[in-house]
Specification:
The chain is of the alpha+beta class. The chain has 14 helices and eight strands. Helix 1 (14-25) links the parallel strand 1 and strand 2.
Length: 375
Amino acid sequence: MTQQHILYAMSHSLYSGRARSYLIKNRIPFEERSTGHESFKAEVLPKGKLPTIPTLVTAEGEVIRDGGAIIEHFEAANGRHCQPQGPRQQVISALFDVIGTDGLLRPAMHYRWNFPEDNLEFVRYHFLHSQRDVPERAAKTEAMMNRMRHAAMIFGVTEQSQKLVEDLYLEYLDALNAHLESYPYLLGWRPCIGDFGLLAPMYAHLGRDPHPARLMQQRAPAVYRWVERMNREDQDAPEFFNAGNDFLANDEVPETLVEVLKILAEDFVPETLAAADLINGWLGKHQPEGGVTAVGRLAESLGTADFTVRSEQITSLAQPHRFYLLQRVHDTFADFSQEKRGEVSALLEACDMAPILTITLDRRMIRCNNLEVWH
């Protein structure tokens, strides 16, 4: 492919890292522009519908908003190069995509905004330079940063929950490091869709902001190398002397990855259950018409849900976006034979993730004209 695409993104944006990495790894040529570029508001936003990033303008002029949709656009065209063939690996890949883009927002926000002595000037530089150079640039920057600080709290990061958020993150980081000491990617020797989803929080926030980046470098060097690797177009695995070039054979999901998921399940499962209950209640009360927008900007929600992790209550936004992504897990699972469903169910049971197969909303969502809407 030699045609040039334009990716509207920001280096400090969580969701931008997911799409950027996919383009890099699949050697899809692109030019990156900030949303401060004049063309974004004038030419791209009317077609993208929401002022969110990443947004791609293809070489043919098509506008695609959202990292998942960008990846799906190219996956559909290239034979799904980043989707494993085995059912167990397919579901694990899709699950990590959900966890990365929605399930790790608490540590991502905590480690960015609650360590200002290390992070503030670095983060302010990037927020400032994503704005057009106009007289009100500094004021706009502070307003945007304040909104994102508030987002950290409404995602469930409070003074009371900070220690729990850190404990869970460090246990997860240690387990992921142990896995990546044996394999360069989640499922073997090349990245799957789940790698790109997981990179979203692990790059811009946790692998790049000064405080969490130093923590990752010192505590989990194999994870830091994976973050670097995901932004290189080659395999970038010289430390693996017996490296292959494909996903692990025989639909293998290593025990080290099961251990990662068991830790993540501790808050991902109860939060998903609580959020589904709240959103289903909202759906029953409001009965939105088909075609009404279901997923908006980050931190927009239908309310907050309470759930308990390690005897501590957390209150967080209940966002339909998580369930839009989970639909892909459910749809993938539904396509398998009865025998293969049994194998996948047994695997998820071992990961303490079995409930995610039955947690659904009462209404599906579909994508229409760059928006996720109620069906």
